[in-house]
Amino acid sequence: MTPLLEVRDLAKHYPVKSGIVVARQVGTVRAVDGVSFAVNRGETLALVGESGCGKSTTARLALRLIEPSAGSIHFDGRDVTRIGGAALRALRRRAQIVFQDPYASLNPRLNVGDAIAEPMAVHGIGNAASRRARVEELLGLVGLAPFHAARFPHEFSGGQRQRIGIARALSMQPELIVCDEPVSALDVSIQAQVVNLLKDLQRRFGLAYLFIAHDLAVVKHVADRVAVMYLGRILEVASKRALFAAPRHPYTRALLAAIPHPDPQRRGRVTPLGGDVPSPMAIPPGCRFHTRCPAAQAICREQDPALRPLADGHQVACHLAETLPEAISDTGAGFA
Ligand code: SF4
Ligand code: MG
């Protein structure tokens, strides 16, 4: 089956310039540095990694909100890397984004009804009356009463604003929604409500999500598959079950080990990852994780490991994936 979204060898490099009179390039930030993944219809692929690893840039590249330096983007089997005009507008209807901070993405001077109706108006969908009716329907879908349409963004809580952002994305009846850390700014109790809403909407409308997160605990609740990103590259992809039960990449293992164990008796056994994340202006040669990897060997400093398939759709970018001891995931959190 053709994936809904597929990106191949996607890169975003920014020149870094210095100099007041004559600017000269002093380096390159490799924010996204050769990323490939696919999102199938109706599934949630979580893209997880520490802040600054290139997750949000990848999300924006995938939707053509920014232009890639290299690589290609395919939507529903079609190469959309360089489309423009009407074709790009059509893509915008089918693939929407929900941002981390809905307050920043909502115009404070538009009431919520107008904010939700705006994409429909831009795309020439319906008339003012039909859009008003649709706004009420959309508010209902995200659990907000119709009278909220007349209120302004500042009158809502963070969780409610995120519901409004989701309603706005749904207004286009998209097939894919990129969720860029949609619950990271919310209290834990509210996070669960928004995650449950997203899952409910996915079931109802067959939505696919590319779900960006830095929090593996959230990923555990939403993802079908997980891609782990580090310094602009994906290091491991697996089903959620395989990733949490039998992670292969040393970085994934370190991330999982850093999740606090629910049983306090079993906490504190974890060796935290040493060192800092290198700058995306100075990505280490060979395996980009070698400066922090407890298992690194000579080959790791020389050869850049490609993302390669193991069994059952599990992919890993590590020279030594087969020879590392079996991972014992000890995060303690079970699967529902
Ligand atoms: Fe560690 Fe080497 Fe694997 Fe990189 S390739 S993750 S440095 S063992
Ligand atoms: Mg981000």
TrEMBL record:
Domain ABC transporter: 5-256
Membrane topology: Peripheral membrane protein
Pfam (any one): oligo_HPY
Subcellular location(s) of the protein: Cell inner membrane
Gene Ontology molecular function: ATP binding
Alphabetic keyword roster: ATP-binding, Nucleotide-binding, Transport
ATP-binding as UniProt keyword: yes
Tagged with keyword Nucleotide-binding: yes
SUPFAM superfamilies assigned: P-loop containing nucleoside triphosphate hydrolases
SMART domains: AAA (SM00382)
Family under the similarity heading: Belongs to the ABC transporter superfamily.
Protein name: Dipeptide ABC transporter ATP-binding protein
